[in-house]
Amino acid sequence: MRVWADFTLEQDDAGRTVLALTGPLTVSSIGVVDHALRDHAGEIAQVDISAVPEIDTVGAWTVWRLLREHDAELTGASDQAERLIAAVSKSSGDGHTAGPRLPPVTRTFQGVGHQVSSWGQGTLDITSFLGAVLVAWWGILRSPARMRWLAVVRQAELVGISALGIIGLMSFLVGIVIAQQGAVQLEQFGAEMLTVNLTGRIALRELGVLMTAIMVAGRSGSSFAAQIGTMKLTEEIDAMRTIGVSPVEALVIPRILAAVVMMPLLGFYAAMAAIVGGAFISSFTLGIPFMTFILRVQEVVPIHDVWVGLVKAPFFGLIIAMAGCYQGMQVKANAEEVGLRTTMAVVQAIFMVIVLDAFFAVFFTEVGWG
Amino acid sequence: MSDDLDDIREDVADAAHNRMPGPYKGEFPIVVEGVRNAFGDSVIHDNLSLKVRRGEIIGVVGGSGTGKSVLMRSIIGLQVPTEGRIEVLGEDITAARDDADIDIRSRWGVLFQGGALFSTLTVAENVEVPLREFYPEISDELRREIARFKVVLSGLPEDAANKYPAELSGGMKKRAGLARALALDPELLFLDEPTAGLDPIGAAAFDALTRELQDTLGLTVFLITHDLDTLHEICDRVAVIADRQVIAVDTIDNLLKLDHPWIQEYFNGPRGRAAHAAQERIVRPDKKMDNPGKAGD
């Protein structure tokens, strides 16, 4: 059973208060008596620990604090207790253990200030990162032997091949949803055959690439940021620099290239999967045979819809890879930052992809690829 | 303050305390018997045995890759050996498969090679973590005070308590790691290469600190090191790992009499001789264990 430390108050011959501690004074038994001792307001002239069978540094600290606060004297201390008290008394023990923290009002202003200055700093950092990437590209263009093809292939596998399953399944399901929901609405006008147009065009122009971009940002953008960020923390990036390997060349360029190459392929693949999904559900709900749906897609979807999707994809890949690598490179100090930067990489990538997609939508309509 | 008493998770605290026997009184707090550790095809330990005496500082040496750290990880339950049995403070570690089953975690402290401090917490908050975990009944004030005096006890300046690990130098991180290892006043202290990467002055100070703490707190210290000065300076006995086993456990003087090529090369190589010579020149009366009164000063 647990034995708690306890104390009793007595009067000695001269009428002074003697605090006698009993029971083991260790970290495991002191919790409750410590509360009581802190509540005790009266004078204490003497602290008697002769009835304490066991003492550790926490007990020694408590005794020492009593002695210091009440200006009391110690009796009944063993050799060990005295040594422990001597050891702990080097610390004043005052003050907080948390990191420095300002009062709330000041902190709010400071937070706003930080935010503003970090926007400025962020713009500078992004510009310098873009510059570094361009410099690395230029270096590789001048001496193509420096291109790390092995890394490119490896990253292409991670970004592309291993994503085939999930992207295929996701797009297939999205295709089903569009065809099914579209059919419900179009039926009201007796235009259910237009479901084919709807599914085919939206998959090729928008959804195939956009959904793929979101999935790649979540899968690969985050892993770029986390991986490079961790390498930054473990000083691997610094080690590369000292060996004369440019981290941008070795880490960033292969990832960018892999994402730029794989995005159009994945986007097209996703569009196909969505069309198959649409055809699949239409054969049940609309009574359009599977192959008829597929052949009809070929007739009603203009070829420039395919180009619209394919042109956008590499830009999305570029944004995702750049955001991931940039955020990874910005990691400093601690593990929490890796998580924060990874989140930022994904959020930024998806946001910028959607903004860019809106621009593309307007642009392509204006140039007549409506 | 008494309101806080209601907040104490009485059941949690009780459970923790009921499991907790008094300090270990046996002779060997660490007993390793016939342990085998293997990663795939590479066998690290085979039939390795070691007994550590209570109250001693045992140094563990061995070439790189001989499994010193693996041995330590096995003893503290992070690595389950494929064969053999390990007893720590009288409890069988190898039988306890689940982390939660190892009740004695509150009775040892571990200093990992790189410090392994929680990077999002300040040094003092790092020290508070085990206190919060095992003794929820301790008041916030006392816990803060404990954290701060442990930081000072570990040889850090008082103001280092509020700093984050990223703001500390390598040597300070080691000391901060030591402060966390000492948080619960453990009976056993595991140190993995505590002086590696420290300057000679810092290393000597760390050695002195280890010895002082061992004297003051009556610790048993399991110390992995490559530092010959540390071995000469503070270790009561040295265990040598070679050929997948502990080939000898003894004082350095006695080890030197053995005719094992690795031991001879280790202690009689140029660095070994220099450290030995330095030890011969300096007489250190406070090193003796039966004169602990001085260490607390």
What order do the helices and strands of chain A follow?
EEHEHEHHHHHHHHHH
What's the tally of helices of chain B? Answer: 11
The protein's oligomeric status is heterodimer
The helicity of chain A comes to over 70%
How widely separated are the two ends of chain B? 35 Å
The total count of strands of chain A amounts to 4
Work out the radius of gyration of chain B.
Answer: 20 Å
Helical fraction of chain B: 25-40%
Structural class of chain A: mainly alpha
What descriptive keywords fit this protein?
heterodimer, A: 370 residues, mainly alpha, Transcription Regulator spoIIAA, 71% helix, elongated, B: alpha/beta, 6-stranded mixed sheet, globular, disordered N terminus, disordered C terminus
Explain what the structure shows.
With 370 residues, chain A is mainly alpha-helical. Chain A has two domains: 6-89, Transcription Regulator spoIIAA (2-Layer Sandwich), CATH 3.30.750; 124-366, no CATH class. Chain A has helices at residues 31-39, 57-70, 79-88, 104-142, 149-159, 164-187, 194-233, 236-243, 247-285, 290-300, 303-329, 335-366, and strands at 6-11, 17-22, 46-51, 73-75. A four-stranded mixed sheet of chain A has the order 1-2-3-4, covered by helices on one side. In chain A, β3, α2 (57-70) and β4 form a beta-alpha-beta unit. Chain A starts with 5 loop residues before the first strand and ends with a helix. Chain B is α/β, with parallel strands linked by helices. Chain B has eleven helices and ten strands. Chain B has helices at residues 3-7, 10-18, 68-75, 123-134, 140-153, 170-181, 200-217, 228-234, 252-257, 261-268, 270-281; strands spanning 30-39, 42-52, 57-62, 83-88, 91-92, 108-111, 188-192, 220-224, 237-242, 245-250. In chain B, a hairpin with a 2-residue loop joins β9 (237-242) and β10. The longest helix of chain B has 18 residues, at 200-217. Chain B starts with a helix and ends in a 16-residue tail after the last helix. Residues 1-9 and 285-297 of chain B have low confidence and may be disordered. Classes of the chains: A mainly alpha (370), B alpha/beta (297).
